[in-house]
Amino acid sequence: MPAAPKRKTSARKTTRKAAPKRKTAARKGPVNKGARGEWVLITGASAGIGEALAGKFAEGGFDLVLAARSKDKLAKLGKKLSAKHGIATEVAQIDLAKPGAPRDLFDEMVSRGIDIDVLVNNAGVLEMGAFKTQAPETLGDMIRLNTVALTELAALFVPPMAKRRSGRVLNVASVASFQPVPSLAVYAGTKAFVLSLTESLAEELKPDGVTVTALCPGITETNMFGTIKSSNERTEKIPSFLVGDVQEVAQEGYDACIKGDVVRVPGLAYAMTTSIGRAAPRWLTRLVAGTIGRQMM
Question: What is the pTM of this model?
Answer without folding.
Answer: 0.82
